[in-house]
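Reply to dn_fold:

You asked what the input looked like. This is it:
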Amino acid sequence: MDRYSQTKSNRIFKALTLALGLAAAPLASHAANPFLPGYEYIPDGEPRVFGDRLYLYGSHDKAGSERFCDTILKVWSAPLDNLNEWTDHGIALSTRDVDGHKDDIPYSDNEFYAPDLVEKDGKYYLFAQIVGSPCSVAVSDSPAGPFEVISQIKAPPGSPNDFGGWSQYFDPGVLIDDDGKVYLYFGYGKSCMVQLNPDNMTEVLPGTYQEFVIPEGSPYDYQEGPSPRKINGTYYLVYARGGDLAYATSDTPTGPFAYRGVIVSQRVDAHGGNIHGGLAKLNGQWHIFYHRMTNNTVYSRRACTERVSIEADGSIKLVEQTSLGFEESLDPYKRTQADIACVFRGGSYVTEWDKATRPILGNKNGCVVGYKYFDFGTPLPSQQTTFTIQYRDGSAPGSIELWIGDPAADGEKIASVSVDARQLEESLWRETTIPVPNISGRHAIYLKFASDTQGKSVADLRSFIFTRDTR
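and this is what came back:
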């Protein structure tokens, strides 16, 4: 047994864990963005469909971290016919002993970055890049794991060994073509590609290394995170371009790839920071997966998705970030948790208060948070609508304005809640209910915070709900 294989005891432990169901309990959730349970931080998500389930493979962040990623990888999945019901399959790989899971990587204790997984001949190969170490390849009989590390990626003798190149395989993305050839895309700052030996999925075939598969310079501006797909005979590379998730296409897997545009961006109404993701077709509908920043940092990222359309010419139009996730519309008559906001202007941010609570803090004068989109239906003449908001007093008196539509565009302010300044160092969450005009149809909801006192928080936002009652 070589140094890259797992010990017998570790394999037995993993098999028992899976058999006993210790790591695979379905969790009731919502399919809105972010779509996993609020306490779970999965950035760099690679979506893969196997059978009747969607699986998500990505990095793993911590809520209070001061650096990217964690020393574990996890797997989550949901049935395609119910994307509200996500299952946590537990730790897929770890570079250290953690929570009863044995160390899978004897040659490193460092963080994992942005994995990918593909299926070949009934086996599931997980490609896991580790900071400062060559990419590991692990295999399983199930897309949920447990996984066994079988090797590092092995380059031919005499290959270059530069960072982001042969030794690191930064942000690996894998494509198995229709002819069985296996392509591995990777690289930070420059995009690279190799072909792998399909017989073992670990050896780089001599003479296949290419640099700048995605060309240098503008408009490409490649940074990291190549995610390959073959769609309708065309090869797509989705990749991170700073705060933009862009894509390029080619008629061949080796390129040249032509720049096509941006699919989703962190540059508008978002917290900024990096972005990374991939495409998946779910129940006939294409989705782009990406992540958002939370906890007032770029190191606590949560998984999101948006619907996209692939046009007849192969193009994908820029989509806006929404609160929808897998939903077609949100229900205003169910309680909306603050953290599914998709618009942040003026410095507001989501934070993890506790495992069950993720309010929006930093709501100073002029701050705006927005939610897209709610379907209010058609009210009856006999019905009256009320709006209930759960909040905590800030350090400055002011108000929380309720807007239908964007306050910076053609939105309409329909109500306002007065907020007193906090009298004590800490105050309790409170609820206020106010009447509002009846609302019909599909709308974005915005909350704007106002105060005569500058630079101090007006209120912390926890949740809200609309109610329709018969007079």
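The CA atoms of residues 376 and 439 lie 6 Å apart.
Hope that clears it up.
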